[in-house]
Structure formats: C-alpha cells, structure tokens
Amino acid sequence: MPSVVFTGNLKRHIECPTEQVTAKTVRDSLFKVFENNKKLKDYVLDDQDRLRQHVLVLVDGIAINDRVTLSDPVCADSEVYVLQALSGG
Amino acid sequence: MNTEALIATRKGLFKLDKHSKLELIAFEGVPVSMILASRHYDTWYAALDHGHFGVKLHRSDDAGESWKEVSAPAYPKAEEGASLELIWSLQYASDGNPLSLWAGTIPGGLFYSADGGENWSLNESLWSLKREQKWFGGGYDNPGIHSICVDPDNNNYLTLGISVAGVYVSTDGGDNWQNKSSGMRAEYMPPDKQFDSVGQDPHKLMVAPSDGNRLWAQHHNGIFISSDGSGSWSEVKDVKPSVFGFALAVHPHNADTAWFVPAVKDECRVPVDGKMVVTRTRDGGLTFETLDSGLPQNSYDLVYRHGLDIDHSGEKLIMGSTTGNAWLSRDQGDNWLLLSNYLPPVYAVKFL
Q: Are B54 and A42 an interchain contact pair (Cβ–Cβ within 8 Å)?
C-alpha cells in the first residue's frame, strides 16, 4: 500500500501522521487521508482542490507533474511525500 | 481580565496589559493578518496567513486564553475558481451575537458566518459586481475588502472599503450593493477616469461611531470626508506633512475628530523627512495638528491600515509599524509612549 508522509513543519500546525492507503493516484492517496482529517486538506490544497502554490508533493522522490487534478500515478509501494517549498523568514 | 489591546504581527499575536506590558499570547512565528476582539465579548477571532499552508481562522471563546481552529472562508468550486489569499477584515455582524461574523478577503469576496466561523457563505451579489466592474489589486495582486462597517442601530446597513473598487453600501444586509464613491478622486488613473466611482482606492474607511452620516477615508492619494452617509465625498487638501497614508482612527463620540499617520507618497512609503508624526483634526478636516511627542524623528516606520486604533473612551490610541515599533497615547495623541522597538512587523492593533 502506498504511504503518505507529511513534513514535520506541517505537524507543528495540525496532526498528520504517516498513513498507508489504498490508492492509484496522488489524488486518491491524499483524499483517503483527508477523509478522516478534513482540516488537513485545507493545509495542502486550495479552495479549488489544487495543490497549494507553495506545497510540493513527491512520489518516490520525484515532484508530481499534475498540480491541478493530482492525476500522477502511485504504485503499491510508493511513498507520497508532502512538503513545503522553502522560503525565507 | 487585564488585556488592554491586542497586536497582530507577522510572527504572532501579542497582548498589551493594563500596565503597558507586552506579551506574546498565541501563534508564535505565524503571521496574524487580522484580529477581532471586543470588551463586550469573550469570543475573539484571529486570522492567520500560513503562507505555504494557506489562510486559517482561529476562535477563542475565553477572551484569548485558548484558541481553536475553525473554518476559513472558502470560495465555491468553479472552473478557474478563486481561492482565499488573505483574511483582511473581520467584523461582528450583529449586536449581541459574537458568533455572527463578516470576513473581508483578498481576492475580493465578502463572507458571512452565522456560527462563529464553522461555516461560511460567499456574498454572491457583491462577488458578481467584482467581476462585472473589473475591480483590481492595489498593493496585492488581487482586490481586497479591508474595511467593514456595521451600523450599530441597523445591522443590515453595511459599508465596505475595497481596494481597488471604492466604497460599497448595502441597506439590506448584503443582498444588494451600491458603489458610493462619488466625489473621490483617483490620481493614479488616466485624467478622464479619475472621478469614476469604481477604481477608487480607499486605504481605510470608517463610519463615525457617533454619527452614521459622517464617513472618513484615508485614500490612496488623499483624505476624503462625507457628511451625507457616503452620498458624496469631499477631498481634504493641504494637510501637512502629507495626505498619503494608510491608517485612520475616528473619535468614538465626536465625528469631527480623526487621526491619520502620513507617509511621503505611494512610491516612497516612509515618514516625510524621516519624522514620524500623527495628524489630528478636531474640526472635520478644516485644520490639522501635527503630533510628534514621543515619536522617532529619524525613522522608516510605516503604519499599515489596521495599525492604528482608538479606545472606547476616545482618549487612548495605539499604533504599530512595519518596523516593529509600537506606541500608546493616553492623551489623544499629544504624547506617545514607546511600548516596544522589537516587535515583528505589525499588521493590526485592536483595543478591547
């Protein structure tokens, strides 16, 4: 089962443990997690369910191509890693 | 309860207590774009701008002792639909019910919540005007609602300040809206468009608490006053050292008395000659005094539109700057006490 991992920086604001999900795309993976954690969705996706501008999603270490509908495929043993783009303070 | 005022900054929410002591009370390291609090209610709100992770709204039900995340307004799903960029204004919507709430946002939507921010609805009639009238951004990429005035005697009478669109009034609780910017002048527009009602950029708008017919606006290129409930506006000219600025405070019991914090002009947002001052009129804009006692005279401070507030007595003023300085005046601005040189950039201040 793919696992969905969230950056530690996000854990500072909201509970988001690593989860194993049954999914074939990035969208499915994330929405499986969001089913039980609706507020988390608003930290990762914008009002139109697009990936937030300054959030990155890597699948097995490679940034996804489709930030709008999140259609990039995931494999059974994939790691979907959600992190923030880096910026100054 | 010893909170005198709240200060929302780029790196957290601070409290000023009755002994003029400052203390961080929540959201350390997180930008707090707006705060709503009242001495009449224990229900307060703080809008956060997480940057990477979006805009959030938190509510306290115990006067700031503890906070919990509620829902931020969200734009309806649509093809090329909008997404919330900033909560720029918050206002209690009906007297006696602190769970009834207006939120003004960038990119220009007004939202209403009847349940303390658990659920929100976009004001569709105003949103459709935004598209029809081609509102545009001023300072930000997209337009925004920064001022929400609710008539204390008739909560259905609403007045908004929108950058960049102008002054909007609804007399029916938000079902219908009219642009009420007649007489405002937009220096930045082509000559034949300068007096168009849509395209005005009030930086901050206030209806005088003691007289609903008296409105004040610190506009992008000047100060404007209305004495007929925003039916018409007059420009207040020749105010020294400058008519440019963002912040505005109006005396709670005297509609002729107001304060402004001038800067050089739009492309040079620093105090004139480095001298930080507050200007005050007591006669409806006919004359102004320049107040500088206790303020730095070699300064780059700018006070944002929500960075100045007056208390319910009309005696105390609080002011915070982008440089992270904050001051308190107990005598209507005659003298200013430095509260801190070391705050993060200040976005909003609010007396209890």
A: yes
**What is the spatial distance between Cα B19 and Cα B35, in angstroms, rounded to a whole number?**
21
pLDDT in tens, B43-75: 999 999 998 999 999 999 999 999 999 999 999
Structure tokens at B309: 């507030």
Tokens of B213: 């017919």
Which CATH architecture is the domain A3-84 placed in? Roll (3.10)
Q: Flag if A85 and B52 touch (Cβ within 8 Å).
A: yes
ipTM of the complex: 0.91
Q: Mapping DSSP to helix (H, G, I), strand (E, B) and coil, where does residue A71 land? A: coil
Residues from chain A that touch B30, judged by Cβ atoms under 8 A, are: 13
- Tell me, what amino acid is at B69? E
Q: Is A35 on the interface with B (CB under 8 A)?
A: no
Please report, for chain A, the start and end positions of each structural domain, with discontinuous segments joined by +.
3-84
H-state helical runs in chain A: 8-11, 26-34, 38-44
Whole-prediction pTM value? 0.95
Q: Could you tell me if B107 and B144 are in contact, meaning their C-beta atoms sit under 8 angstroms apart?
A: yes
- Residue of chain B whose alpha carbon sits nearest to that of A48: B77
Q: A43 and B53: CB-CB below 8 Å?
A: yes
